[in-house]
Amino acid sequence: MIWLPIVIGLILISNKNISKLSASFITLFTAITIFIFSILLFKLYDYSSSELQFIEKYEWIEGLNIFYFLAVDGISVSLIILTAFINVLIAIFASSEDYDNKSGYLGYFLILEGLLMGTFSAFDSILFYIFFESLLIPLFLIIGIWGGTNRKYATIKFFLYTLFGSVLMLISILYLAKLAGSFEIKEFYSLSLTFQEEVLILLAFLIGFGIKIPMWPVHTWLPDAHVEAPTSGSVILASVLLKVGGYGMIRFILPITTEAGIYLSDYLIYLSLVAIVYISFVAYAQEDMKKLIAYSSVAHMGFVTLGIFLVFNLMGSNSSAAIIGLEGSIIQMISHGLISAALFFCIGIIYKHSKSRLIKDNYGVAQFMPIFSFIMIFFLMANSGLPGTSGFVGEFLVITSALGSNFIIALLAASSLILSASYSLKIGKNVLFGQNKDNIQSYSECKKNEKIVLSILIIIILYLGITPDILFKLIDQTVIDIITSASIGYI
Amino acid sequence: MLDLLFIPEIIISIGIMFVILIDLFLQNYKKISYFLVQTILIISAYYASNMNYFPNYDAYELSNFSNNIKLILIIGSLIIFHYTFIHLSYTNKLKIEYFTISLLGLVGTMVMISANSLLMLYLGIELLSLSLYALIGFNKKSPLSSEAAIKYYVLGAMSSGILLFGISIIYGFTGSILYSDIASKMLLINTDSVEYIAVIFGIIFITASLCFKFGAAPFHMWVPDIYQGSLISTTVLLSTLPKVAVFVVFLKLYFIPFLVIKFIWSDILIFVGMLSIIIGSLYALTQENIKRLLAYSAISNIGFIILSIGLVTINGLQASLYYTVVYSLTALASFGVITHITTNSHGIENIKDMAGLSKTHPYFAILILITMLSSAGIPPLIGFHAKLIVIKSLIDSSLIILSMIVVLMTVISAYYYLRIIKTVYFDDREELISTLPGNSIILSINVISLLILGLFPYIIYNLSKHLASLFPSISI
Questions:
Q1: Per the domain annotation, does B442 fall within a domain?
Q2: N or C, which end of chain A has less CB nearby within 10 Å?
């Protein structure tokens, strides 16, 4: 499942002569196959157990004790399905787009998909790190080759930022491995570290994953990268790549550095709150739609980190609230993956017609594209957390959990519902329903494949918003397991 | 006794004379002489891998360990000569003397590897250096080349002098030039005596000279100028063969005669290693000329090798072996790619000459992508595993701060590798760029091996472990 897209991607890249049509077809076919596989994985996954499942383990580098160790638990499964799903949508969406060397473009996406699957299912820390780092290469090329005018600056900034974060992480992985005598992530959980070690390791991981998520104040690469990326690049970046950071936090920071986390939990929560509140204001001030959505991503990922760090705060006193918080942040990751993907698709469609992403250049789209406008307003509502959409569920859970800790935190977190509504509606009001006075654009209703993509997204977002049960069932046992094991380690 | 005729050094030495003779009569059929050169290498590789009679000499080591290293050198030379041939015949500078001189240098490296006495070591180093002086000045028409040759000659002669000075001090106070004798004398020397201090001085002189030959900071000043001045094919040679040889010399010198006072040289080596990594990474940032850039990148790679020798642990030793093999492979690949590309008027000099390569030659662009990412240490390529193992051995020795500096430098150095990729992929073409005629199969194998070995890193890991186990006396 990891290697299939990578191999096909490599074939697509190395073979220049594949026509655009057949390249799109091959990509779509591969993406759908992978999606079917991941649905099978989902069906066969045993909810009632928190054990790792579908284990594949081979010795990889003998002398160093590094294993090729793949497995899944509930969180992995949910993110794997998200990855596969988004890639199907990208394949459908990109089939009508026109790029030079399209087979290469789609090939890089398939490689990216394979590497993401690997990241979410690797349970050996070095293997995880290798997948995690390799993600940079295809994305670097996607943005750099097919990106906008300022792409060179954006790609190098993005690459160096994330590389910097991850090498610190590598050091702490190696240090942990030295203590544990093994590179398996599960082995790290039972280590007893001194407090000082824990704090340093926590900070290293926090920088590594915090840049990836991204957290305030290391988020500045994200808007640049988003603005310069081609539409599908933004989609995969926002919807899946950012989740790697959150996933890493749950996998590494929560169970390994519990004690330090509890000690630092206040500061970590403040950081998340700054992301939620301050970045929302920043988002409101943006002129560029893509930047606006990028900042809104940072704000929404603030909820994810808030949910994770609240666990530290609540673990001893109120573990059911901690569970709710963590589940909330996972659901927030999934739903933000869907919603931000949808919004970037929408902006991509507008951009294709008007060649501008600025709000002031795009007024009154609704006059020309009524169906599209309806769809987009739905996504904007979902982005602001309207009940009934999946955006609401995650935020609601995190806020509930925050109430268990401290009223002020909950209040500040909840203020984001208003703030995000304000910037979402800013786009809606101006772009969709503004007065198109002088610059009459040649907007026309979106194509069939774009409609398919957007309507699938609407259905899923509504479905998860109304019956989030299915997700809960998937992640419940794993979350409980993580929290109990973390608190046992603490006590 | 007859078996000794077939050690690679002798085969190559006889072959050199043979080639010179043949070339006199076949001036117009250089290809034949070239194939002869390659045949000699293949024959010597065969004998190096199949040797099983090891006479025991004091001053000259013939063993599995040295033969395996020689085999690596011979295979490296095969690839280098292939690149050289393509490059020289395209630029109409093809002379068979180039290959014979390179072969002499190869013999020099082999003598260095086998040397078990300080004088033998000096002989090997001089043989190598003399042929390098000639190779660097090979491009007679270019003033840069002559400048580089003279610079290298003057500095190299001085460093040889320093080496001899160190050797004579050691000889004067221990009474021997054989490694094994020195080792047993060292055990007897009293730590308060004058001898002890003098021997330390001798070691420092020898270390300084070897660091110069290695091109490690703070003795690195010659590296960029000489890399830039000489033909690209000489640069390939310069950046691979001598490094492997000097690495083995370091290993033997420090782990056999001077192991007793390891606390002295290990600090020196760690310092030299860190300094090389830092200088190599920082100075490379501003370079426009690709050869200079790769020169600085060589300096920082050397730093990794020296650093891990300086740890004096089994892990460090394996890491440095691993790194040396990987570095040679990567250097071969990156210079190999550059030898294959040319603009209309001249070879590639500056990074911007490669702008827009991906649009006209996507295949070569991918090769550059792979080599540069491997050099930058991005997984899943082999360069990552090499850096990983070095950093791991640093952490195993509890040098956390040093390992943090090292990884920061890796991030910085990633920038200039990325800059090359950026130029190749994202920039627009200014001048017409083309690739050399002739096949690129060996180049492709070389580059793709970086990827394949990266996915299956245990191949080289086992190799380096095997080599380390062959290494005669490790008692750390």
A1: yes
A2: C
